[in-house]
Every structure is written in C-alpha cells, then in structure tokens.
Amino acid sequence: MAMSLLRGCIRAKWSGTLQQNNERFTGLTCNNRALYPKTLQPHLLAAKQIGFPSLSQKTLMLTSTNSAWWDYFRPRLGPFTPAEKKGKHMMLASTHWKLERIVAISLLGTLPAAIISPNSVTDFLLVTSFLLHSHWGIDSILQDYVAKYIPWIQKVWLLVSILAMAGLLHFNYNDIGASRALLLLWSIH
C-alpha cells in the first residue's frame, strides 16, 4: 500500500520522502501531506523497503488525522445529527446489541421448532425473528458503509423491511404459512 502511494506520488511529480525519527517511522509525505499512518512499529518495516513482513504479530495504529484519503474511507465513528447526539430517538447501544443477540439465539430454536411442529405460532415467531435479524444486520451495514454516499438508503431499507413483514404475515395468515412453505420447498426434487 505504501509503495502504491509512493508510485502515485512519483507519477504526480511530487517528491516523496520517508522520515525516520528515533527508530520510529513517522510517515510518508508528499508536499507536506501525510499519505501514510504516522505510527508504525520499526520491526514491522522490512529493511530498505516499505513492507509489512510481520503484520500478523502486531496491529497497525492509524493515527494520521490530516490524511485526506484515510478520512474519505473512514467509517462513521459516532453520531452526526442533533437527534443522534441526544440519543432520544432510539435504544441505547448496549440494549440494542443485547436484543440483537437474543433474536439471533432465538432463531436457533425457532427454526427447528417450526420444522418439527408447523403451526401458526411457530410461523409468526419464525417470520418475526428472521425479519428482525436480517433487518438489523443489513441496516448496520447500510448505516456504516452506504449512508455516507446515499443518505436516504436507510429509509428505503425500512420501507422494504416493512413491506416484507406485511407480505410474510399476510402469507402466514391467508396461506399455508412459512414453515409449511419451507417444508414444501425442501420436498421438491
């Protein structure tokens, strides 16, 4: 990665320099712009080259805050809107994670119960827990990685999740149900 940054520096006709200070790598700079994290352990760097021969031994610490390329790809680290800063619009993070774990573990019992004893109660439990689990998982991905580029994507995902829930509840109530449909799907040769 550092070599590709250095090559990009050379292609752009910038002067790239490696600076070492008291056996510590202090960063790769081009025109006084830091292009590489400033804190690396010296034993992680190969002699006379920029490389990471023992990357699995230690974790690199990224402390460069003035690097534009790192800031562009950095995931969301905290709340940004005033409502998110107040935190009154949703659950606490610890409560949310506990509830996600409970729903994920409940799927381990709900799926076999729905297959062994297909009835309306297990159908509704299966559909509800599966949709909650999938909604929270995909919503976390969208919030961390996609919302930065497409801010309205979470509203679309919420609408898709509500429509999926309504469709599956309608299927459970007016048709054979999710567990019997799963059994029929598995019996097809």
Automatic annotation (TrEMBL):
It is found in: Mitochondrion inner membrane. Its main location: mitochondrion. One of its GO terms (molecular function) is ubiquinone binding. Heme b binds at H133. Keywords: Electron transport, Heme, Iron, Membrane, Metal-binding, Mitochondrion, Mitochondrion inner membrane, Transit peptide, Transmembrane, Transmembrane helix, Transport, Tricarboxylic acid cycle. GO terms for cellular component: mitochondrial inner membrane. It is a multi-pass membrane protein. GO terms for biological process: mitochondrial electron transport, succinate to ubiquinone; tricarboxylic acid cycle. InterPro entries: CybS, SQR/QFR_C/D. Pfam families: CybS. A ubiquinone binds at Y145. Membrane-anchoring subunit of succinate dehydrogenase (SDH) that is involved in complex II of the mitochondrial electron transport chain and is responsible for transferring electrons from succinate to ubiquinone (coenzyme Q). Belongs to the CybS family. This is Succinate dehydrogenase [ubiquinone] cytochrome b small subunit. It comes from Octopus sinensis. The gene is LOC115231667.
